[in-house]
C-alpha cells in the first residue's frame, strides 16, 4: 500500500516549487475553485497544517457548521500573508501528517492532486502530480470510504469509468472514459475536465 503521507509531502513540495515560478500577475489569476485566485489556493493548501481541528471546529459555529464557509474564512485570512511566506510555509510544513476527522489522510492527498490542476489548468500550464497518484486517488474516490465532500453519494451510480492512460476501470453502466487526471477532476466536481472525457455517461457526473 502506498504511503499516502509521503506522497502528500512530495506533492506539497512540488506545488511550492510551482508557485515560486509564477509571477505576481499569475497569483491574481482565477482558479477552478469559484471565487479563489491562485493566492487563495496557496493559502488554502497551508491551512490544514496551520489551523488545528479544534480551532476550525469552534469557528465553524459562526457559520452554523458550514464546512465550506469555514474553509473560506480561514483561506481568506491566510491569503493576506506575503506570497513568499505562503510558499515558505508550504515547504516548512510539507511533511506534517494531517489526518482530518471523517476524511483521513486521503483528504489532504486528494487536495494536492486536484488543487495543483485547479491552479495550473486555467493558466494553460501542464503542471501536475505523477499519473500513478491519480490511480491511487481514483481507487479511493470509487470506494465506500470516499469523503462526500470529494465525491457525493450517488454521483458515480450507473457509470462505467475508464482511465485510458493507465488501464484503470471501475463501475458498471454508461461509459465515461478519458485520462486519469480528467476523471479525478470530474469526479471531484471540476466541470472544466468534462472536455477531456468521452462517453454517454459524462453529463450524468453532475
From TrEMBL:
InterPro entries: DinB/YfiT-like (IPR034660), Maleyloyr_isom (IPR017517), MDMPI_metal-binding (IPR024344). One of its GO terms (molecular function) is metal ion binding. Residues 15-98 form the Mycothiol-dependent maleylpyruvate isomerase metal-binding domain. It holds the Pfam family MDMPI_N. NCBIfam families: maleylpyruvate isomerase family mycothiol-dependent enzyme. This is Uncharacterized protein (TIGR03083 family). It comes from Actinoplanes italicus.
Amino acid at each position: 500500500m502506498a504511503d499516502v503521507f509521503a506522497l502528500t509531502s512530495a506533492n506539497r513540495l512540488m506545488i511550492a516549487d510551482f508557485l515560486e515560478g509564477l509571477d505576481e500577475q499569475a497569483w491574481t489569476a482565477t482558479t477552478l475553485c469559484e471565487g479563489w485566485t491562485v493566492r487563495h489556493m496557496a493559502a488554502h493548501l497551508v491551512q490544514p497544517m496551520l489551523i488545528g481541528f479544534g480551532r476550525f471546529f469552534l469557528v465553524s459555529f459562526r457559520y452554523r457548521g458550514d464546512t465550506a464557509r469555514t474553509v473560506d474564512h480561514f483561506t481568506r485570512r491566510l491569503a493576506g500573508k506575503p506570497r513568499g511566506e505562503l510558499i515558505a510555509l508550504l515547504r516548512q510544513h510539507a511533511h506534517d501528517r494531517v489526518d482530518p476527522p471523517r476524511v483521513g489522510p486521503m483528504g489532504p492527498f486528494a487536495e494536492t492532486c486536484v488543487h495543483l490542476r485547479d491552479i495550473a489548468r486555467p493558466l494553460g500550464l501542464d503542471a501536475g502530480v505523477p499519473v500513478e497518484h491519480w490511480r491511487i486517488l481514483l481507487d479511493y474516490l470509487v470506494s465506500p470510504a470516499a469523503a462526500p465532500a470529494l465525491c457525493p453519494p450517488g454521483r458515480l451510480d450507473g457509470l462505467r469509468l475508464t482511465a485510458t492512460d493507465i488501464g484503470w476501470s471501475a463501475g458498471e453502466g454508461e461509459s465515461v472514459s478519458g485520462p486519469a487526471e480528467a476523471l479525478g477532476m470530474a469526479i471531484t466536481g471540476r466541470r472544466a475536465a468534462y472536455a477531456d472525457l468521452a462517453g454517454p455517461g459524462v453529463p450524468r457526473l453532475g
